[in-house]
Amino acid sequence: MNWKKFGATIGGMWLTYLVYKVITLAILYTFDGLQSKPYYEFIYFIIVVAITLVIFNWTKRFFKREIIFSPNVFALKKQWSILIVPLFLYGIDTFALLPNLTEHSFYIVMVSIASALGAAIFEEVRDRGFGGIGLALSIENSQWKPIFVAVVTSCSFAMTHYFNLLLPNAPTLVATNQQVVFTFFLGMTSIVLYMRTGSIFYSILIHFLNNFSFWTPTSDLSQEDGWTSMLIFYALIPGLYSLWCLRPKKSEVNLKYLPDKQSD
Predict the structure, then answer these.
(1) According to a count of CB atoms within 10 Å of the terminal CB, is the N or C end of the chain lower?
(2) What is the DSSP letter of 223?
(3) What is the C-alpha separation between 147 and 158, in angstroms, rounded?
């Protein structure tokens, strides 16, 4: 284990998240009621894109690697089935919303896209891109390396959602706990797509589809749902999918696009 790279990776992931959170919380508490204003989503989008550019440059500077955004069609063509489960789990609600597109103003549609896309780009670049590359460079290649990278990045990604309890219009603790479980398995699914293609494009797409909903004054708050259905559809199914894709027998294909510590 290269503890220096490991520490730099975890530290970088959390530092960039905390910078984002401090900035957004300062703005929300300075301007009362801003969280329920649609134009805040554009402010949010600008903030997360700016931090994302910093993360992108850090990856090149610290790890001598680039986060690939262009879709790797060739890799996906050979294993197209890996998209079926993520699209079903995280895209079906968005596809169901599309017929209602004309019922909303162009402004609300753009606000909704900015909110969903901003989070998807920022979190995938931070956790799957920077995190995935940094952790991959921290340890030698082995059949367990993909699972290690997946679990650590997904845990970090999920735990950041507890900071939502600090928002002016914060979700309940129960809703937040559900969101943490949900995002852990979303992270596991996303890292599979990243490992199998070497591109962040597909995980951003799935994350965007999951986040997208037409903006309302309370659309950014986590809603409590029954634990049973949530655990079956958004924990058990993506969990089995991720473990199947990341199983040791598939280590060669999962390691193909991850950087190797030995070659660093």
Answers:
(1) N
(2) P
(3) 16
pLDDT band, very low/low/confident/very high, at 13 (cuts 50, 70, 90): very high
Angle between helices 173-197 and 237-245 in degrees, nearest 10: 30
Tally the residues of the chain: 264
| Nearest by Cα to 213 from 101, 56, 63 | 101
- Between CA 158 and CA 247 the distance in angstroms is 22
One-letter identity of residue 240: L
Q: Confirm if 224 and 178 have CB atoms less than 8 A apart.
A: yes
Cβ atoms < 10 Å from Cβ of 123: 25
> Tokens representing 182?
């949900």
Amino acid, single-letter form, for residue 60: K
Highest mean pLDDT among 44-53, 95-104, 162-171: 44-53
Q: How far is CA 93 from the centre of its chain?
A: 18
User: Which sequence spans correspond to the domains of the chain?
Assistant: 3-263
Residue 260 DSSP symbol: P
- State the DSSP string of 124-179: IIIIIIIHHHHHHTTS---TTHHHHHHHHHHHHHHHGGGGGGGSTTPPPHHHHHHH
Q: Which two tokens stand for residue 181?
A: 């479980």
pLDDT at 181: 96
Report helix, strand and coil shares of the chain as percent, to nearest 5.
75, 0, 25
Cα three-residue angle 242-247-248, rounded to 5 degrees: 155
Alpha-carbon dihedral angle through residues 223, 94, 86, 67, given to the nearest 10 degrees: -100
